[in-house]
Amino acid sequence: MNQIGLIGLAVMGQNLARNFANRGIKTVVYNRTTAKMEEFIAEFGGENLSGESGLETFVRSLERPRKIILMVQAGKAVDAVIDSLLPHLQTGDIIIDGGNSHYPDTRRRKEDLAAREFHFIGCGISGGEEGALNGPSLMPGGDKLAVDNILPLLQQIAARDFNGGPCVTNVGPDGSGHFVKMVHNGIEYAVMQVLAEAYDLLRAQGKEPPQIAEVFAGWNQGKLASFLVELASTILRKADDQGDGYLIDRIVDAAGQKGTGRWTVVDAMTRGVAMPTITAAVDARIFSAQRGLRTELEDAVAPAREAPESTPEDLEKAVYLAILAAYSEGFQLISTAAEEEDWEIDRSELARIWQGGCIIRAELLTFLQESFAKNDTSKPLIALPQIAQQVQAGLPHLRGSIIDAATVGIPVPGLAAALMHLEQMTRARGSANFIQGLRDAFGAHTFQRLDRPGTFHAEWSE
Ligand code: 6PG
User: Does 277 contact ligand 1 (Cβ within 6 A)?
Assistant: First the structure.
């Protein structure tokens, strides 16, 4: 009997199936287009990897309770596959959605399936094609029993953390697995944005892509060591195989997005969690996509631009602090949601399972894992004592880089938003007394006083 079934043989599905089989886990695959399944099995099939052309035989070939992982496009396709599977399942079977599904959908599916006595797990999977094959970071959430049931299989295919442990944990109940994957992607957007801004500033100084690659390679030896910084060097070194120069200079500056970053921001807004850095990253992608309009407006406004002067050393510190701000925002959303939804998510565990396989894997996560473990509070990351020192040390560099960028007219929305996050949260007395005064003056919304308790309203007009 097969131990796991996988439906959906796009690249991620193929690689995940091969990963299971490579670890000696008997795996059966199914794909709506049979020819694709046959092609895949002809190339990679073997003792541990087989295919079925019918759903019924696919399901019957699995040991019970059946564990079926769906690797189909998030959205309607997931519902369609579940519907087609249902007639073949038996009580207690477990369906695992490994796509980037929106967690409210996961919640709905879980409830529908629970009513029929099936289990449903929403499992965030990060790591792209390479991770799926060699070890992704896995974020399963759902009924505890069902997650515990599949955990041993997931532990075998997962990437390893910095201490050799598997990058998988039982995230929590309900849609919490897909929720944390969504937030992971929000952080991913912000990290990429601030790296892009550093690249932009260095490029505007006249540095060639391989020189910037060197800068990133240097950063990858320090506090910024991470998969994305390493990958930044790789993409900057790539020569253009269709002409002179470097490929990066020929790529259209309009970023795509599938929606997970935007969902993160919308969710944060709904829960009243501020996430300026991640929001700026989503906004920047939106602006980037308006290329025609940007070109028109550059002609119309003709803003003066000069070469910036920030040094790689300043930028490294600025980028590090902005990334800390983005992590703080993401983890704050996770803490708030966990409290509101009664999910009990262990932030230290998340910082651990993101150390390997996933797109935001970074050295910094060791420090975050330790900080969260030591400080069992729902306070934001930047409020933890170990982080406060880093904020203090990094602020002058973040401020300096932004002054430089603003002086020469280069937009750095991610860095600037991170700075504004940190400036607002490290300023005891802000300007909202003024807002309160206005609110009370036009609508008798009342205010509180610094010098005495109670709620007050003033007669503002003379
Ligand atoms: C991962 C990634 C992945 C995501 C891509 C593209 O963790 O492996 O987050 O799940 O689909 O990064 O996302 P966008 O198209 O929205 O940039």
Answer: no
